[in-house]
Amino acid sequence: MNIARNQMPVPPAATECRKHANSPAPSAAAARLDAQAVNTGSDANGLGIEWRTKRQIARHLKCSVRHINKLMKRRVLPFLKMGRFVRFDVAACDLALKRIEVKSVLG
């Protein structure tokens, strides 16, 4: 292989890497994690609460994680904090946002 002095050899493409050839793309893995709820079944006490992470609740509400942080700081969204882990009840968040909804003047 002849390489000029100023040229560096080109590394193989990412698809040719043997180490990660069989692993799914990061976007597919992230989508799979987002699709799974933290607890989709019945809670331990049988309430059937669906807990979500910040990223999952942001996707549910169609906003950014930064906006979720702002809503948490202003105490608009109810959340459960266990150490550094934060979880949101989907139904409680929907109800909290319904309470602060601005009604139309026209009708």
Biggest sheet, open or closed, and with what strands and sense?
Answer: 3 strands, antiparallel
The CATH topology comes to: Arc Repressor Mutant, subunit A
Q: How does the helix and strand content classify structurally?
A: alpha+beta
Low-confidence stretches: 37-42
Per CATH, the architecture is Orthogonal Bundle
Radius of gyration: 22 Å
If you average the pLDDT, what whole number results?
Answer: 76
Strands of the largest sheet, in order across it?
1-3-2
How does this model look, in words?
By secondary structure, the protein is α+β, with helices and mostly antiparallel strands. The protein has one domain (14-99): Arc Repressor Mutant, subunit A (Orthogonal Bundle). Helices cover 35% and strands 9% of the residues. It is built from 4 helices and 3 strands, in the order H-E-H-H-E-E-H. It has a 3-stranded antiparallel beta sheet with strand order 1-3-2. A hairpin with a 2-residue loop joins strand 2 (80-82) and strand 3. The chain is extended, with a radius of gyration of 22 Å. The protein starts with 25 loop residues before the first helix and ends in an 8-residue tail after the last helix. The model is unreliable at 37-42 (pLDDT under 50).
Question: How would you sum up this structure in a few lines?
Answer:
This protein is α+β, with helices and mostly antiparallel strands and 107 residues long. Helices cover 35% and strands 9% of the residues. The chain is extended.
Detail the topology: elements first, then pairings:
Elements: H1 26-35, E1 51-52, H2 54-61, H3 65-73, E2 80-82, E3 85-89, H4 90-99
